[in-house]
Amino acid sequence: MRECKIVSRKFALQNSHTLKVSRAHGGYKTLEKLKEYAPADIVKIIRVSNLRGKGGGGAPTGAKWELMPQGSTNPSFLAVNCDESEPGTFKDRQIITKDPHLLIEGILITCYAIKAKHAYIYIRGEYYQYQQILQLAIDEAYEAGLLKECDITIHRGAGAYICGEKSSLLESMEGKRGHPRLKPKQKEPEWYFGNPTLVNNVETIASVPFIVQNGAEAYKVYGTQKSPGTLLFALSGHIEKPGVYEAEFGTSIMEYINHYGGGIKNGKKLKALIPGGVSCGVLTAKEVENLTLDYEALHAVGSSLGTGGMIVMDEDTCMVTALKNILEFYHEESCGQCTPCREGTGWVDKLVGKILDGRGNKADIDKLLEVADTMNGKTICVFAPAVSTVIVSFIKRFRDEFEVAL
Fold it and tell me: Do 249 and 230 form a contact (C-beta atoms < 8 A)?
């Protein structure tokens, strides 16, 4: 398997999170190339590279950038998504922990390309520790004069908790500089709304420096024609070596599992796999045998690459229990605004619980599919359709287990 390290190149370096180490290994060098290009030229390079969004949808990044007006008198903004709210997804926090300056460099290049003077990083509330690490990196960039043309602000999600203890990494980063410049309740910029805003995922932005530094064709050397480049796959579940490993699109799933993950835990057989986070359709071991990690291949079998959150399940996994665990998450996380989602997530959670307890019947399995259909495409956001996808894929591929549990 060919080793590909575009985003993770500096991850293994000692103190890779610091500006000193980042610069010693080429960090921020791409900013010098901006003198050679107009903003529109950078947008063109990203379009030609066919970089695809790495937050789940896989949309062409360059096409999104081209929608940003180049000649507008109104301010433009960049919003970087670091929510990672889906179970199985934990790659963006790896970037923030191991190489936050790569993200900052990508932000500066992107803001130059779309003529934005302010970028906002939205980070999930539970990522308090990672927010502090990222803020310290931003502080370093400010002190080094790297953010003269662009401001970066971190915005934490609502309902977050604050950890009582700091990690050893955070302690070492703070040193004598004291506590980072954190504002628990930053004032929302009213002038932000109604202005052109580009939204991209953390890993998408972190891929930009390589492409601008080396050229669009250098990026397309990796991956497939329609899915070029690489992705950080978060490997978890019944696997010998769980973790985050970068691989090029088009890699064999089984080769990836065996090469990076060390194979199925305790020498057992693979039973099922969720390739990109729990909202992606589950696959059987037989389907996975000859499947590759790219958008087109997974779409063809009724699943998706998602965020690359690969969850491995061995031969002893009860698929009814696995679905119940996932639906408990969706039931808890539904915001409740849309009736099909608010009522549906609770209903399917109870129905699977009933089957799992041996109190169900075949009509309950059909009812699950009926409710899933009601939830699909009838809500404001894609949360409910994701639940629908999960239910349908589990029952379609493992209905026999649901019937045995009755």
Answer: yes
